[in-house]
Specification:
heterodimer, A: mainly alpha, two-stranded antiparallel ribbon, 12 helices, B: about 290 residues, mainly alpha, about 5% strand
Chain lengths: ~300, ~290
Amino acid sequence: MIPSRLWALAALVALAVVPWVLARHQLSLLTDLLIAGLFAMSLDLIMGYTGMVSFGHAAYFGLGAYASALVLLHFAQPVPVALLAGALLAGAVAVPVGWFSTRATGIYFAMLTLAFAQFLYTVAYKWRDLTGGSDGIAGVPKTALFWGGPSLTSPHAFYFVVATCAVVRSPFGRALQAIRENERRFTSLGRDPRPFKLVVFVIAAAFAGLAGALFAPFRGFASPEVMFWVFSGQGLMMVIMGGIGTLVGPILGAMLFILIQEVLSSYTEHWMIFTGVVFVLIVIFLPGGLVGTARRLGARA
Amino acid sequence: MANVLEQLLNALALAGLLFLVSAGLSLVFGILRVVNFAHGVFYMLGAYLGFTTVALSGWFWPALLVVPPVVGAIGALLESSTLRFIYRRPPIYQLLLTFGLALILEESIRVLYGPTAKGVDPPPLLQGAIDLGGVLYPRYRLFLVVLGCTVGVAVWLFLRKTRAGLVIRAVAQNSEMADCLGADVVRVRTLVFGAACALAGLGGVAAAPMTTAYLGMGIGVIVDAFVVVVIGGLGSIGGSMAGSLIVGAAQTWGAFYLPETAMVIMYAVMGAILVFRAWGLFGEEE
């Protein structure tokens, strides 16, 4: 068994050389993958650590994307400012939504988060003056990464995405573990776990907002599409495919999902049907996802 | 005064459609403990199959009779080929499985029918408007009010007064005990799932002349139906009725008085109810 530190080091080295060996198209695919992975990871936070399933997580990704697009377009600030704006807006909106939603549990929570997300989607769709309606905001400038730094069009930008993911990853797990432990302690003392659920919900939304804020400048647009329920569901698919509550799993799940999408969409424009079939099969036959199944096989061997 | 009557009827017509969808959603949750995300897609399927039937036969009424059983059969087939195997899992897996089914069905309809909306003409009997004491009101919407009420009463009578309804209620209350007492729980689940899909399909056929059959109508209605059952309480037919009326009223009056923010009203009502009753008006605490 290779120690996990060694794995992390190997992954880091691999990511470091990647911008120099991959073609432009592959690099942008990898960037998409990391952004999707970040989104899935933030969703896994809620699912894995509180056991609640949010069916409206795309809304926070979308809020982050819009905030970032608007900041970059109107204030010509470097990327970190846009990221901060995205995370803050998503987190702020998640406070009232979370307050209502965490009053319910289980299936009710899932339905409530979906309902609120569709509401936010409608707002983004209808508020033409600010969001451009169904067209969204196009032409988000690829501004400097830092004040006077390289622009987002350079291959160095990839490092920036990796760094963001790494920063998110390190305090992430520990903060969450603390929350999970505390929830147990709290409920066993007979106190209300809801404030903790709310905190997790808001943190997860802020990280989804961060992923969205990265998405806008890299893809150059923000549109209602990224707030749509399909994208929330796709996030859940990534988490399930990778393995709930594993944090590494969702990244692998995102990888698998985007690869399936890449491969299938080159054969047929109706790739969604086949993605749906693969997903149904995974739900039925591999409930632990990639990571869970690998662990089970490892334990058996 | 005339306006009030018109708005009231609009609210009732919308509530009728919402009830056809949310009753099945609620019923499936009551019996199978599954939140069927694909339920809205069965509504959409009903609308598209309605379009096909009307196009083939040239008549509207056959569609109303033929389409629901077909949609129900497709639903029952999907239940017995996928959902049946994962009832023991945590509820989220069933929700996600139905999400996968929804994707497959929605894309299949896109492949078969193309992206443009399909219009359906109401039957001649229900075209035009009727004079209700000075108010000209579309006949078709009045028909929706009647249809919603009829189906509501029929479902209620079926569950309360027939032997099959008794078995279904027994399975809903305690499926293991019902199993011990000789109820065929597996079959009840499949039949209830199929019946719920048939109701959604009926809703879709009925909605088509008013809204046309279009892609995305499934998710639109499922979100509204979720709000209905969250307000009314999952698993309760009475709750679905009350919730449909509340949401129908909120949307109709919201669209009339505050057109820009009609959506907000529905969510505000839902939020207000949840603050006082987190499990809906008629729901039972889990």
